[in-house]
Amino acid sequence: MCQYCSPDNPMSHHDYVFNPEKGRREFILDSMAAAGGLAAAMGGMSMSSQAMAADKPFDEVVKIGYLPITDASPLLVAHGMGFFEEEGLKVEKPTLIRGWSPLIEGFAAHKFNLVHFLKPIPVWMRYNNNFPVTITGWAHTNGSGLVVGKHTGVDKFEDLGGKQIAVPYWYSMHNIVLQMALKNAGLEPVIQDQTDKLKPNQVNLQIMPPPDMPPALAAKKIDAYIVAEPFNAFGEMKAGAKMLRFTGDIWKNHPCCVVCMHDEHVQQQQEWSQKVMNAVVRGSVYAQENKEEVAKMLSREGKRYLPMPAKAVIKAMTDYNPASYQNPDAIKHEDWDVGRIDFNPYPYPSATKFIVDQLKETLVTGDTTFLQNLDTDFVTKDLVNYDYVKNAMDKFGVWDKVKGVDPANPTVRQEVFEL
Question: Which of 7, 122, 157, 418 is the most exposed place for a label (fewest CB within 10 A)?
């Protein structure tokens, strides 16, 4: 009997389609990221990749790299619905990548020219590694949560003392929001060996690729994880997880993953970049207006972009019923009018500023000197291109079709963060 069919593990390997054992290469990459070594590797890679790009003619084919999470929906919907072709673009079938480190490496090596990254990742890439990456839009808003194992008896943040929690990446919205919530509950986030004894008020954090989180929780190797969908929904259905809090109920309409492109394309291939963002914006709006249909399309019963059953993806995109999440009380702000996941592609500067400011106070591994010297106002202007996404939203008249927009001033908003 395999470990995922054991009596002590409620998950079935027939439902969980990923191989839980990392390949040697992915293990090395994730270990490097955890130790800060990937930063050094990227330092050299950025220069070589720029030189290679300069020597080669522009390849107009859209090459998408993505993780199997609902964050990638606008890119996948744009591909599945033929929106890139309708813009006159050639596009390859999107490439599924299991972890953030190999996706970063693939983008840095120019294997991909259109990706989604956790929003703090391009901050780290551009200002710690001098890699020319540009944010051209948001992939989604909300769409994440903190789930705990039923074996833990945890019903509130204060109960997390002495627990082991997995995060998808140090440079993630998840790590920022989690640590803010833990500190608010009087707890101390730490990063140490899992075998080291924790003080009652300490919570140990570790990096774990999203696909590995549900089986790790089911096997009681961790006590909780915070991640993007559909791994929270899948954890609820198959891994003995319960939702402690939706992140969109803490930070209203927050960004998580962002759409990223190479600087040279954004700056030099303006017509191509605009067409790419036209398709992405159409994909985003379609996902917002047709969540259940899109969930089925993405699932393994549909176009198989996500190797998850449709039931799990539908739950991940539509199940936000306060009555179902009262114990624990995972939805405290019903009046916010947010969904479990929403899609607004406009990258508000106020959110970028909030993330950069909070990153400076967030525990991560590696050298964070670069963060302390960052001028957040400069980052909002330097890291993000607002023109292509705004042009597309104006062209298609879709400002009123997405969440969190002030019709009188659609490109400006105030951040709402309430624990």
Answer: 7
